[in-house]
Amino acid sequence: MFLDFHESINENVSFGCDYKIPVKGKGSIPEEIGYVDKLYQLFLYNNSLSGSIPSKIFNLSSLTHLEVENNSLSGTIPSNTGYSLPSLQYLHLNDNNFVGNIPNNIFNSSNLIVFQLYDNAFSGTLPSIAFGNLGFVEFFLIYDNNLTIDDSHQFFTSLTNCRYLKYLDLSGNHIPNLPKSIGNISSEYIRAESCGIGGYIPLEVGNMSKLLFFDLYDNNINGPIPRSVKGLQKLQHLSLSKNGLQGSFIEEFCEMKSLGELYLNNNKLSGVLPTCLGNMISLIRIHVGSNSLNSRVPSSLWSLRDILEINFSSNSLIGNLPPEIGNLRAIILLDLSRNQISSNIPTTINSLLTLQKLSLADNKLNGSIPKSFGQMVSLISLDLSQNMLTGVIPKSLESLLYLENINFSYNRLQGEIPDGGHFKNFTAQSFMHNEALCGDPRLQVPTCGKQVKKWSMEKKLIFKCILPIVVSVILVVACIILLKHNKRKKNETTLERGLSTLGAPRRISYYELVQATNGFNESNFLGRGGFGSVYQGKLPDGEMIAVKVIDLQSEAKSKSFDAECNAMRNLRHRNLVKIISSCSNLDFKSLVMEFMSNGSVDKWLYSNNYCLNFLQRLNIMIDVASAVEYLHHGSSIPVVHCDLKPSNVLLDENMVAHVSDFGIAKLMDEGQSKTHTQTLATVGYLAPEYGSKGIVSVKGDVYSYGIMLMEIFTRRKPTDDMFVAELSLKTWISGSLPNSIMEVMDSNLVQITGDQIDDILTHMSYIFSLALNCCEESPDARINMADVIATLIKIKTLVVGANTV
Question: Of 119, 144, 362, 643, which is the active-site residue?
Answer without folding.
Answer: 643
